[in-house]
Amino acid sequence: MNDDHLKRLRTKRTQKPKSAFLYSGLGVLLVAFASKWTGAAVCYFWLLLGAAVVLKTLFLISVFRAREFKPSLWFHLILTGVSLILLSQLFKTIFPVPVLYKILFYSAITLKATGLILMLCSKRKG
Q: Can you give the C-alpha Rg of the chain in angstroms?
């Protein structure tokens, strides 16, 4: 019984990251911002944003669990972008500094987009 449990754990760790979580999260994030820009109710934006964060978190968990995972440049860029977004929210809500918020936020978006492009290019080569 214990041996079966170890085999299942090994099998789970060797699975490839679920790209569907990443692309679904990005799609839901796009819909969230589109709903905000079109003037839809604020609750829709926050619900969709929460769903996007959950899907992207599931993707990161599946990346970390993969046995062959070795952090590369694209992964570091995406994680840095996520950190900058969280930091920008700090300067938007707690310490309101609009200029610093915009610099951090748009830098984060740029880093995440660059990381995504590098990830897609590295997948094509491999």
A: 17
- Mean pLDDT by runs of 10 across the 126 residues of the chain is 55 61 89 90 87 84 76 86 86 86 92 90 75
Contacts of 88 (CB under 8 A, 6+ apart): 100, 101, 104, 105, 108
State the virtual CA torsion across 68, 72, 75, 79 in degrees, nearest 10. 120
Instruction: Give the count of beta carbons closer than 10 Å to the beta carbon of residue 58.
Output: 17
DSSP secondary structure letters along 49-86: HHHHHHHHHHHHHHHHH-TT----HHHHHHHHHHHHHH
State the pTM of this model. 0.54
CA 101 – CA 84 distance, rounded (Å):
10
Q: Which amino acid is at 30?
A: L
Tell me which H or E stretch contains 9: helix 2-13
